[in-house]
Specification:
single chain; 118 residues; five-stranded antiparallel beta sheet; 5 strands
């Protein structure tokens, strides 16, 4: 894992329109707790992504890390989907069958009960 690199706002600012992680003290008071937030930079202020509120006096920023490139073993996803399906199926009061035809019949009945959508 590479070490994160924070940039002091006195040294450089991100590109306009960039989404970055910022660090600041609550109410801009260095005696208060530090917090971190994902924000957009508009050229003069940093804004929270989700609320549009601006951040008071951030001291540092860093680019977002690269998104994960590995989703995992595809068989893990299939197993997770199977577990979710079985949990949802049983939550509807349905029985699980080892017999494919019986399970298909239950599925058909459930689908038609909900207007063809399950």
């Amino acid at each position: 894992m590479t070490k994160s690199q924070w940039t002091c706002v006195e040294d450089a600012m991100p590109d306009v329109g960039a989404t970055v992680i910022v660090s600041s003290h609550y109410a801009g008071d260095p005696r208060r707790e530090r917090f971190y937030a994902v924000c957009n930079y508009d050229g003069s202020l940093f804004f929270f992504d989700d609320t549009g509120d601006d951040i008071y006096a951030p001291t540092h920023w860093m680019p977002l890390p690269a998104a994960p490139s590995h989703i995992g073993d595809p068989t893990e996803k299939v197993e997770i989907d199977r577990i979710r399906f079985e949990a949802a199926w049983q939550a509807q009061g349905r029985d699980l069958y080892e017999n494919f035809k019986a399970c298909a019949w239950e599925f058909w009945q459930a689908a038609h009960k909900f207007g063809g959508m399950l």
